[in-house]
Predict the 3D structure of the following.
Amino acid sequence: NNSENTETPGGGSDGGSGSGSGSGDVEITETIDTKTFTQGCMEFWGISYDDQPETSAFWCITLAEKDFDLSEWDGTGLSIVIELFTTDTEATSLPLGNYTVEAFDKEYYSDYSVGTGFVQEDEETGDSYCYGTWIFEDGSGVYAAEDGSVKVSRSGDNFTVTYDFTDLQLGANFKGSYTGPLEFVDLTKTKNSAAFYGRRPVI
């Protein structure tokens, strides 16, 4: 994370504290079932955020509907970015298994954890952007993952990504499953990540 910027956990720019420990008494007022994703990629960033230990590696799974261009982060429809942390820093394919959302205020993310959705403000421009795990509509952040989990499995060239996340601040649950190829992008060798450098503006 950029320590010069202001971070707010989840739920849009007003935010709040994501617990990652269960939705508890949160009233779910909206459920989004995302069974329409037709494309995806997995990005390996190597060593994760600056404040994480060197044994922590950072991945992004990005999924989208057919009318959204992942390479340009542009188009219409739903998409999701899922940030994952593992201790395998030399991987060429995302480690399979179950990943769980952890509290935003932990000192660092542990093995097989999901990055909590949060908003970060750029002090130079005053603009706010989405980081962590979010669902997007037409490229703009709608709901942050503050609780939930994702399971990643593989059969041949196809991955299955099954997730169930909740935005605790806005009372929204978004879940779904994608089966298909995930293009591997090694961002230790290239920094061409439209989903990340597009900065994903909050709506």
About this structure: Residues 43 and 185 are 5 Å apart (CA to CA). Confidence is low (pLDDT under 50) at residues 1-9, 12-22. The longest strand covers residues 158-167. The chain is about 0% helix and 45% strand.
